[in-house]
Amino acid sequence: MQNLTINPQRLWDSLMETARIGGTAKGGICRLTLTDLDKDVRDWFRGQCEALGCTVTVDQVGNMFAFKPGKRSDVEPIAIGSHLDTQPTGGKFDGILGVLGGLEVMRTLHDLGYETNAPLMLVNWTNEEGSRFAPAMLGSGVYAGVFDRAFADSREDRQGVRFAEAIESIGYRGEAAPGSVKFGAMFELHIEQGPILEAERKVVGVVTGVQGMRWYEVEFTGREAHTGSTPMSLRANALLGAARVVERVNQIALEHAPSAVGTVGLVEVKPNSRNVIPGHVFFTVDFRHPDDAVLDVMERKLMDAVPAIAKEIGLEAVAKKVWDSPAVRFDADCIAAVRTGTEKAGFPSRDMVSGAGHDAAYIARVAPTTMIFVPCEGGLSHNEAESTTLDECSAGAQVLLNAVLHYDQRFGL
Ligand SMILES: [Zn+2]
Question: Is the pTM for the entire model greater than 0.70?
Answer without folding.
Answer: yes
